């Protein structure tokens, strides 16, 4: 079982005093906690508007989307945001892996919603830039990028003359 770097440091403290590099890990976490909390609060406070704008855009881009697929996609999008926000707050990528990524890919594949989720995830990322400041987005992005292998970006289909015939 993998641990976050911070958990590993605390476990080591049971056996001995911490080394300078281990103290540095704690110092970096403590130094950035107020920024992380600010980003978490901003995301929490703007979540409904952000997701609604992304959902509205999704319906414009994919007007034939079924209601059940739309609802499921929005639910997954909100779970992605919440779990990535918590991972960012804890500064723990393993948290996102355990709580989200372990089941998300299979759930999306089960319903064959890859394209819808990829479009919605892109739209959510765009909306984040309108709802959060650059520093907050920068704190959240490493955790959102963990989702990329699960929901790979869909290539835009280009209409070609050869494709018509």
UniProtKB/TrEMBL annotation:
Entry keyword annotation includes Lipid biosynthesis: no
Keywords: Bile pigment, Chromophore
Gene Ontology biological process terms in this record: photosynthesis
One annotated Gene Ontology cellular component of this protein: phycobilisome
InterPro entries the UniProt entry points to: Globin-like_sf, Phycobilisome_asu/bsu, Phycobilisome_asu/bsu_sf
Superkingdom, natural source: Bacteria
Similarity comment: Belongs to the phycobiliprotein family.
Protein name per the record: Phycobilisome protein
Organism of origin: Leptolyngbya boryana NIES-2135
Lineage: Bacteria, Bacillati, Cyanobacteriota, Cyanophyceae, Leptolyngbyales
């Amino acid at each position: 079982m993998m641990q976050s770097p911070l958990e590993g440091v605390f476990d080591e403290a049971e056996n001995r005093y911490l080394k300078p590099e281990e103290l540095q890990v704690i110092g970096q976490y403590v130094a950035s906690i107020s920024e992380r909390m600010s980003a978490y609060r901003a995301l929490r406070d703007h979540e409904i508007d952000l997701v609604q704008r992304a959902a509205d855009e999704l319906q414009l881009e994919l007007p034939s989307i079924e209601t059940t697929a739309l609802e499921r996609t929005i639910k997954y999008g909100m779970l992605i945001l919440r779990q990535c926000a918590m991972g960012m707050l804890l500064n723990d990528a393993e948290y996102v892996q355990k709580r989200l990524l372990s089941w998300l890919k299979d759930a999306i594949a089960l319903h064959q919603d890859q394209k819808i989720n990829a479009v919605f995830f892109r739209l959510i990322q765009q909306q984040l830039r309108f709802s959060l400041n650059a520093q907050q987005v920068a704190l959240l992005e490493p955790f959102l990028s963990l989702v990329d292998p699960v929901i790979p970006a869909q290539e835009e289909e280009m209409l070609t003359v050869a494709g018509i015939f």
